[in-house]
Amino acid sequence: MSRKFDVLILYVILVFILGSANLYSASSNFPHNYLAKQIIWFAVSVLVGIVVYAVGIRNILNMGLFLYAFALLLLVVVLLIPSEGARRWISIGFFNIQPSAVMKFALPIFLAAVFQYSNIDTVFSFIPPIFFTLLGSFLIAKEPDLGGALMLLPALGAFFILKKAYFRKALVWIVAGLLMVPVLYFKLEPYQKRRLLTFVNPNIDPLGAGYTLMQSKIAVGSGNIFGKGWLKGAQGQLRFLPESHTDFVFPVFAEEWGFAGIVVLLGLFFLMLRRMYAIAESQKEYSSRMLMHMFLVTITVQIVINLGMTIGILPIVGLPLPFFSYGGSDLVVTVAMIALFLRRD
User: Fold this and answer.
1) How many whole angstroms separate alpha carbon 87 and alpha carbon 75?
2) In the chain, where are the structural domains located?
3) Helices 99-114 & 286-310, crossing angle to 10 degrees?
């Protein structure tokens, strides 16, 4: 077990520092001190990461079935909590646990542990991994949390690629999934349908679902080359941009730091993901390599979706930007993933 300092830690810390400074700006006019809470969550994340690091990849994989069952139980519990709106969190004193984030961590471990020796060479051999993934996605979608439900699919896709599943066999399930899209659309909540429609044309509802997207584009575009300066962005400081401390934290950064700041942030993300890829490829054990690649794909897709939805090239599904947006559960889970890359048994 290598105990040398890994540059991956540096990249994560630098992104978190930029995110914390940006969070302070995005929430400076809010009644709650989100930065203080985020720092506390980061401290909790580090403690969880240390535990995960100490346990190690092999032992984590041995716990795959338990972790999946535990995440599934949390998803059922959160649906049983009476609520007039979305039911996404379980409150335990000071902390709010988001079960969808726990499932995002547990599912790749479960797939790597349970199906590492399975051959995906027939149409029917795809069914078990798809079933267990869609079961989690279904429960998350019932909260409702479309973004969280979708974030289980990248790990499943990576799993099939790593297992070298036959494309012709996979095509059957891809076509079946595409045929289900119209059915799933009519099962969406009204606000989720409006988000998809405003992705095509934000002017359909400029004061409602399209408002956030338009304000986000204004913030990103008004940053120009070097931005307006820290704490000087109009969209964030004057609170024109909704959810500026969570899902839409990136436009605040883009407005204040401009294209130059965006290049720095994207560069740090690229270096972080490249280092994660190098560590994953260096794994000798197949199951460890599979797990790390699934985590890598999950984090990469989340970054792409968040950035894409804030600039209008992807629908708004409600996903935080890793290490940048305010949010405790997602931060803890992402740090736990990183801890396994650092352990690399």
Assistant:
1) 10
2) 7-343
3) 150
